Amino acid sequence: MNELTTQGEPTFSLSPRNLAEAMEFAKIIASSDMVPKDYVNKPGNVLVAVQTGAELGLKPMQSLQGISVINGRPSIWGDAMRALVISHPEFEDLHEDKQDTHCTVTLKRRGRSAVVTTFSMEDAKKAGLAGKSGPWQTAPKRMLQMRAFAFAARDLFADALKGIKSIEEVRDYPEGERIERDITPPAAAAVAAPARPALVECTPEKFSENTPAWRDMILSRKKSPAALIAMLSTKAILTEDQKNTIDSWAHEAE
User: At what angle do helices 140-156 and 78-86 cross, to 10 degrees?
Assistant: First the structure.
């Protein structure tokens, strides 16, 4: 994980090249106090952020600065979203009309009609955002700009954003609200959920039983090894040998 070759010269890089390096990277970063608080002592969050950023084209440290977990889902800061859109090979033009009462964004992609979106203080009032403590009080024009741009970007550059929403939008959802649709019946949702049982180790028998299905996820590129391990680690404790086995499946797909 300590060097890559660029134009024939070795250069230092923190980009993990396999699962073992990714896990090591996550542990080192999580032990640092120079990262956002969402990642301190949370190597799992680090791993998810780095993997999410990699799928968007961001380097590991860019991912940690530009991505945060809001309401249980990785989201991206507006400035990082703008960088992804503006650096897209088909980006053509961006114009923003920023006023005290509204912001209108005109975004143009090569070969397509321009998308024009407006977000106003009236829209903010309807959504219960106007005057809300935080940036809606201290920087309302900036928040109008971020909202208008995010809507235009998601409409025109969905391939670059891959469904990820801006942090400025997601953090304005009601406290504790999940982004994904809640399919729990209202009556059942009112009942406090029971405490989660402690995780147990994934036995060799259980691992072997599920190996065909898990391996197929990697070979079909439905999940990366890191994403699969992150998912499985919420259900059981994997051994290092099991993690290395999952990591090895990626080489079969090459």
Answer: 40
pLDDT of the residue at 151: 93
For residue 254, the model assigns a pLDDT of 58
CA dihedral 17, 19, 20, 26 (to 10 degrees): 90
Burial bucket for residue 168 (CB in 10 Å: 0-12, 13-18, 19+): buried
User: What CA–CA distance (Å, rounded) separates 55 from 237?
Assistant: 26
> What percent of the chain stands above pLDDT 90?
26
Separation between Cα atoms, residue 76 and residue 168, nearest integer Å: 8
The two tokens of residue 221 are: 């590129």
Pairing type for strands 4-6 and 91-98 reads: unpaired
Closest CA to 59 of 109, 25, 92: 25
pLDDT in tens, 66-98: 888 776 778 888 889 999 999 999 999 999 999
**Extents of the domains making up the chain:** 13-70, 80-162, 204-252
- On whether the CB atoms of residues 202 and 167 are closer than 8 A, the answer is no
Distance between CA atoms of residues 112 and 92, nearest Å: 10
Compute the distance between CA of residue 64 and CA of residue 30 in angstroms, rounded to an integer. Answer: 11
- Residue for token pair 């990082």: 80
Residue stretches of the chain with pLDDT short of 70? 1-15, 71, 174-198, 253-254
What helix, strand, coil percent values describe the chain, rounded to 5? Answer: 50, 15, 35
Cβ pair 150, 169 in contact under 8 A = yes
